[in-house]
Amino acid sequence: MKTVVPRIRPKSDGVSAQLRALSMWCEELELGHKMLQSLLAASAPEQGMAKLERSLLKLLSHGGGIGVPSMARALGVSRQHVQVLINNLSARGHVVRAHNPAHKRSPLFTLSADGVVYRNILEGKRQAALAALGAGLDTTTLYDTVQGLRRLRRALQRDP
Predict the structure, then answer these.
(1) What is the pLDDT of residues 34-88, one digit of tens each?
(2) Which of 58, 78, 115, 140 has the most crowded CB, counting CB atoms within 10 A?
(3) CATH number for the 51-120 domain, one of 1.10.10.10, 2.40.30.170, 1.10.300.10, 3.55.30.10?
(4) Where along the chain do its domains lie?
(5) Of 5 and 134, the one with more pLDDT
(6) Which of 106, 1, 91 is nearest to 47 (CA)?
(7) Which pLDDT score, from 0 to 100, does residue 156 have?
(8) What b-and-e string marks burial along 28-38, b requiring 16 or more CB atoms within 10 Å of the CB?
(9) Report field, pTM of the whole predicted structure over 0.85
(10) 3-state secondary structure the chain
């Protein structure tokens, strides 16, 4: 069954078609985001594995050591929160600590060999969930949506 998307037309209430379309777009984005987060969380329900921990694994997978303050800035959370998560990942053997020549009290962290394997397993599960989701979606429409989301993100960065 195909979903019919209503045409957006300006109304006489003074709200422009663009504003109405943007409002509808944002509403769909919010609803879709919640549903996507639930789907992805269900695809990797590891014990105690928080979404932010998966984000840290991804951040660390880019190679090179990174300190807790840099991780916190990259993820937009407090250093204290990142430290707790890094300690959890370290206790499970997913990250290793290294000396930071630039700062005595702020070590650098990298993925351990087990962390790389674990990250790849999580990414495989995520990709499988996304492949199932995308089975009925048109690739051109997806790329157009990505472009629209990028423009929205840039607009938000310019005018917070």
Answers:
(1) 888 888 777 766 644 667 888 899 999 987 899 999 999 999 999 999 999 999 9
(2) 115
(3) 1.10.10.10
(4) 51-120
(5) 134
(6) 91
(7) 84
(8) eeeeeeeeeee
(9) no
(10) CCCCCCCCCCCCCCCCHHHHHHHHHHHHHHHHHHHHHHHHHHHCCCCCCCHHHHHHHHHHCCCCCEEHHHHHHHHCCCHHHHHHHHHHHHHCCCEEEECCCCCCCCCEEEECHHHHHHHHHHHHHHHHHHHHHHHHCCHHHHHHHHHHHHHHHHHHHHCC
Q: Quote the pLDDT of residue 49.
A: 60
Q: Which two tokens stand for residue 94?
A: 């997913």
Distance in angstroms (rounded) separating the CA atoms of residues 105 and 108: 10
Both tokens assigned to 90: 């370290």
